[in-house]
């Protein structure tokens, strides 16, 4: 999961980032990016740990590359991903639409286009796009994971979990899919199941920071704040880890916590 940067250069709390980032990382083009644990389309680029200032700089750099060659798959996908991270979902969708036109049979591109559609709020079309990219005779686990993430956002959790398990049949123990499956259970308040899958994901080789931060989120939601802080603090600065857990405590102390969580999931990214 990615920790979105705030205008001050610090990252927003774990809770908001975890729910907002729910699993569309399953759409990414390489197997080591999620939602997990998967890398972003740009070769070796690590956008998820950037501050807002660094994100703006990277967005400008990739934007320039895309402007020079709008058909460049990698530049376009990276630019679209950065635009999403800075809340510019409509622009990200416009970029991915052009990349999809130029690469109409590329399944990675169509998966990323589906992600952009979902981020822009067009979930039915996102689902249609991801499913259209799939080939029944040679199914792609990343597309299945992306399909599951979109179904989760549509409130169709049972169908989403079928898609995740099909993805795991193809790519056993893939941390990004396990993390997505875990976060699916978060949305239905089955925190024990969520923790089971997220722990499995966190223990797999290739699991990145976002998987472990998702695990910290679920542990915190169960009231085990010291443990959540240890998990988060293993990779975050002490200040950020403490801020994440403090935010969890504040949210869970409120009434109607799950309604509040859903509201947070829909909140726009902070403005710089």
Automatic annotation (TrEMBL):
Family matches, as SMART domains: TPR
GO molecular function: identical protein binding
Organism: Plantimonas leprariae
Sequence ranges of the TPR repeats: 141-174
Pfam families, per the entry: TPR_11, TPR_16, TPR_4
Protein's recorded name: Tetratricopeptide repeat protein
Signal peptide range in chain numbering: 1-25
InterPro entries for this protein: O-mannosyl-transferase_TMTC, TPR-4, TPR-like_helical_dom_sf, TPR_rpt, UCP035836
Keyword list, A-Z: Repeat, Signal, TPR repeat
Highest taxon of the lineage: Bacteria
């Amino acid at each position: 999961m990615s920790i979105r940067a705030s205008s001050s250069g610090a990252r927003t709390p774990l809770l908001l980032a975890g729910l907002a980032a729910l699993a569309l990382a399953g759409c990414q083009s390489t197997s080591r990016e999620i939602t997990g644990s998967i890398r972003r389309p740009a070769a070796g680029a690590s956008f998820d740990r950037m501050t807002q200032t660094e994100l703006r700089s990277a967005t400008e750099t990739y934007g320039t590359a895309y402007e020079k060659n709008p058909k460049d798959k990698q530049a376009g996908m990276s630019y679209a991903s950065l635009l999403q991270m800075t809340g510019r979902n409509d622009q990200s969708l416009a970029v991915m639409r052009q990349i999809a036109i130029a690469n109409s049979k590329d399944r990675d591109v169509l998966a990323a286009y589906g992600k952009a559609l979902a981020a822009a709020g067009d979930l039915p079309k996102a689902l249609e796009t991801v499913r259209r990219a799939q080939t029944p005779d040679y199914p792609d686990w990343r597309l299945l994971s992306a399909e599951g993430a979109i179904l989760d956002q549509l409130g169709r959790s049972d169908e989403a979990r079928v898609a995740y398990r099909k993805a795991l049949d193809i790519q056993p123990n893939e941390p990004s899919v396990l993390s997505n499956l875990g976060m699916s259970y978060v949305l239905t308040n089955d925190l024990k199941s969520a923790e089971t899958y997220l722990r499995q994901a966190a223990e797999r080789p290739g699991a990145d920071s976002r998987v472990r931060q998702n695990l910290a989120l679920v542990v915190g939601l169960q009231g085990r704040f010291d443990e959540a802080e240890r998990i988060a603090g293993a990779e975050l600065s002490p200040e950020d880890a403490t801020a994440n857990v403090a935010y969890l405590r504040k949210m869970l102390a409120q009434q109607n916590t799950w309604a509040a969580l859903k509201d947070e999931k829909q909140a726009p990214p902070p403005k710089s």
